Structures
1.
Amino acid sequence: MASGPPPTGPSRGKRRLALGLVAILVVLAVLTVASVMLGARSLPARTVWDALFHFDPDNSRHLAVRSLRLPRTAVGLLAGAALGLAGVVMQGLTRNPLADPGLLGVNSGAALGVVLGINVFGVTALSGYVWFALAGAAVAAAVVYAVSSLGGAGVTPLKLALGGVALTAVLSSATNAVLLLDVGTFDQFRFWQVGSLAGRDEDVVAQAAPFVAVGALVALALARSLDALALGDDLATALGRRVGRVRLTGAVAVVLLCGAATAMAGPIGFVGLTVPHAVRLLTGPGHRWLLPYSMLAAPALLLLADIAGRLVIRPGELQVGIVTAAIGAPFFMALARRRRMGAL
Amino acid sequence: MSTAGLRHEVRRGRKVAVVLALAVLVAGCAGLALGDFAVPPGQVIGAFRGHAEWKNQLFVLDIRLPRVLTGLLAGLAFGTAGAVFQSLMRNPLASPDVIGITSGASAAAASCLLLLGLSGLAVSAGALVGALVTAAVIYLVSWRGGVSGQRLVLVGIGAAALLSSVISYLLTRAKVNDAQQVLLWLTGSLNGRGWSHVTPLAWSLAVLLPLAFALERPLRMLALGDDAARGLGVRVEPCRLGLLATAVALAAIATAAAGPVAFVGLVAGPVGRRLVRGGGPALGASGLVGALVMLVSDAVAQHVFSPVELPVGVVTGVVGGPYLLVLLGVRARRG
């Protein structure tokens, strides 16, 4: 720093943001390793290493790493990243800080899909839920989007938000009706509905991963358009953005991301809603930083919660959906007391 | 808004209110007459004047009237509370469902049912306490030399998430049949409501509704923004606290009586405001829309799927949701 002029404001800010991103990445890597090692029966690093690179199918510890811990960690990473990104995109599209990724009806559609899968088609395996959840999410989002585009003004944030809430109400009513009438379905559904990473095998990961990958690429590519959209539809149009096309692309990204996350881990609403708010305190409202930060911070929160859930009541465990809210909500409320929170 | 515009809005609001009140009355009478034991309309009126057959009298006054009144009053409370929240937070998604108060009531009720083994009115009382305590905590946590609507909503979301996770936890730990009982309460139901539910509800509303309407004028100013309201001579903090307390109390008492019936508080505001078309809070119209949604939904829940009787909360979404969707489309086409 001795030679040359001191860095000016913006570039120093950029360096600080880049360093922050690296720091979150490091935290995420540490949590990933911890997630593979810790649990009802904690495994030393040596065993994990051997399970990965000198796999012995007769060793029960190696099997535990390969068939339980790895898929579980992968689900946490994928679902977390997906929810973080989907949350940012959804709040940007609707310009509403209350918008969570489930707002398009994705969570309620997925839930109804799973309920019908259990009730009508007798599905019992988690990997069987995935397609029902994805289909339900996609259909629900398509309906919300179609309804919001009725009328002259096209898809406005308000119509999208209210349309999503309205369809969510309709779908959860249907879900509740089935659950109240059929105890057996309810008994299975209540464990899916909490949100959990446990018991997912590599099939579930393999089914959902492509959706997350495509959704993530689309979401990251939208950064500049979302920045323009934040200025209002008129200004965004003046800046050369096709507002309608941006909204549609964003909605597709949300469905891919949130649908896949919900299919893998159940409806975990809290992460996608709150992580963007917390991240915004560090990055400010610009989406070019907000998106990657959320993509890394959300899985970190999810893995941390999952590890905590495994350790607090050993040998039993708490589902990740419960723990994320239990540790995330007080933190979020403390953040919300700060002044700038909530401004998009 | 100009004085003439405001006067026009008030006039239109009155007209809308009269039409809605008539619709509520018709829906209420239908609720009294319909059922496995149908009572002819003449006998319904006769029952009130005390000269109907004893069997009709029994069904109308003792069995169906408390249920209809619970639905009507709870709907009125939900609708008014929702409209207050939405105007105050300047956000159409703000409603007692979203900002944690109903979650407080639900978590308390689930604990009463599953952990303490209570039932009936004791659960309602527990829910009321849960809602009020949650609201107080949310307000105190949001306090920072004043309470902004935005901060309140965000803190409320946090509280709602925390409490829903408590409910989910309780649901996964309970025996499945007990858990289903909780689910029934969480859906919101008017089954088995008697005069012991109606009386406290009616007294509370007799105090709270006039209070809400008295504060409608400052609410209209607050909806323009804190600074604008201050410029118009509104004492922002006391008014906001008064409005919040009234709306919370309304939502809490209605939830205690009928359970956290989904969507009534959310749908009533936008529908009421669009009917009045003024841009004001439209508390009266919203409250009546809430009551109407509850009564129609309960009639559908009881009779359409017979012999299965569904809880009202299953139907409010199905009745209110599409209506809101249609209204959104129609208004957009006009405007």
Note: Residues 1-9 of chain A have pLDDT under 50 and may be disordered.
2.
Amino acid sequence: MLLAYALSSGITSGALYALVAVGLVLCYRTTGHINFSHGELFMIGGFLAFTLHVMWGLPYIVALLGAVAGSFVLGVLTDRVVYQPLIKAPPIAMVMATVGLSFVLKGIGRHFWGGQGEVVPFPPLVSPAPVLIGGVAVFPQQLVVVASVVVCMLLLTLFFTRTRAGKMMQATAENAHAAYLVGIRVERVYMLTWGVGAALAGVAAVFVAPLTLLTPDIGLSLLLKAFAATILGGLGSMTGAVIGGLLVGILEALAGTYIASSIQDVSAFIIILAVLVFRPTGLLGARARREV
Amino acid sequence: MRTLTMTGLARMTGLASVAALSLMAAPAALAETGVTADTIVIGGMGGLTGPSAGLIIPQLNGVQAVFEEVNAAGGVHGRKIVYAKQDDECLPSRGVGAVKKLIHEEKPFMIVGGGCSNAAIAQKPEVIEAKIPWVIVASTADSLTEPVNPYVFTTMSAAWMEVYGQLQLALDQGKTRIAVVWQPDAWGKARLEPMKQAFKAKGIEPVSIQEIAVEPTDTTPTVLQIQATKPDAVLLLLFPKAAVPFLRDAYKVGLQPLMVGGSPLGEIDVLAKGVGSPDSVKNLRAVTAAGYGVDDPQVAKWKGIVEKRFGDRFNVLHMYGISAGQFAVEALKQAGPEPTREKILQIMSNLTVKTDTYAGPLECKPTDHQCHKALGIFAFQDGRVTGIGVTRPTR
């Protein structure tokens, strides 16, 4: 029973990390940059939903759509204000810019939603009472997060394979220069990518916030866990992000259950170190090619 | 070489006399730093930005609310209070610079501030060196007021008091198999050691001591480890960010013994909302510095003022600030129309004040500047946070 609980706990936490990691990977594979403000986009998305649903009393679905739309706009603004001006700058400039943006967004979060106490509860979408699955108690909201990962992956697969915008994003991710030569407006693709990546953060926030609560500082810890997931799964692989997220969650739970509760939280970072040392490309990442 | 003529000498003597008379005629208070004929500057520092801002801003808003109310009623002996704040981000590294800036630029008569122990510990030598009376709002480290320093007072309960109160509450209810859960940061460490000492003083051993992250997403493994020890009480040394996931996972696996938290868990209704079910907190008690629930009629006046003035959701953090502000105001009133720092220090060393937000009076003595003695005990009953008792912990 202990193992069953550890696994169920790991899968539900892992789904949460995966949901955040997918947005992170989407940006990376198209633009080649890690968006270090992704956690704060999540936070803003969560607070947008909180404002619409809790403060203004609008239905959950309206809050979801509002958070997604608001996050998308924020992502587009990120592209316009941060990414495009630095597109030819050294990669470190982009790292610093997104880190800086994360602080700006955190400040915005504190300005508009600070003073509410240490945490802001977000009501669950479904019944808060736990349900038994095979003798293991699970919260329905945790099942919602797992389901949302599956739905997001399905929608993203459809988006990339069935839509023109998705195909352009795929082409740009493969080779931006070639995409430009065949007439794809690469700059617009980048803008769309930042927007969709941020919108995914908004989706994640609405489903995950009832489990994590909301604070203006929630972004960093989630970003780090999602980053661990993407490193483990292979930076640039969406499927890898999901598998990585689930593995990080499960390994955390097993470490907390069978080694010590104090090691649970740091196990994700031990994973990052181990993967970087022994398999830098992650589980599903492409092996690095060296030009000679 | 110039020589003084009789006329020049007479002129200089006259000017000196005028100057001396002017000085004699001026109120003595004008000579005191931070005090003018119509204002008195009180400094305040705390984490106005950074991760702790959500905790500190409400505290200082509580202080400011008191000062603004006093000003609206005419001030203290006709002087309006100017509350000058500096941001220390709750970091020791920023704290020293912030308090120096406060002392040397704002030149306050006294200080009412400090919400984070680590920053306050770093700031203490600066305040003492400047010889400024300091009323600590919410920093809880025992070392701030032990040993007694003539310049430092606190209106917040000390770290040891809450943990002794938590353990005593469990023992009073006949619990013997008691577990402890703590968060591994400075705040948690400052409570874990006194908690171990409290167990030792009572001659019992905790059945389990478990650590969870400050911001965990899932605490099921910890909950299961505690459940395996079959506790009849769990003492929580946690902030809400950690407590909500813990309570949620305990509720999920059916771990429902008596749970006792400290001041950070005073808003049990918020915790219930965080978990999503009031059933998750039905066995939770909170031993807190605040004496009332946020919806209690005793604090309704302040709730209205704070929510209208600052747009905050009124909570226990405001209550800490309100009590600290009222303590300082009472000291200023008793100091009379010509306050001096020396006078204020003497008054505060023997001051007893019943504030609007604490369960018992703040009582300072020359040998004890830890002025908060009575902690409120709260439960979640009939859909609201309800006071169920008061405790005065002793070591």
Note: DSSP finds twelve helices and 14 strands in chain B.
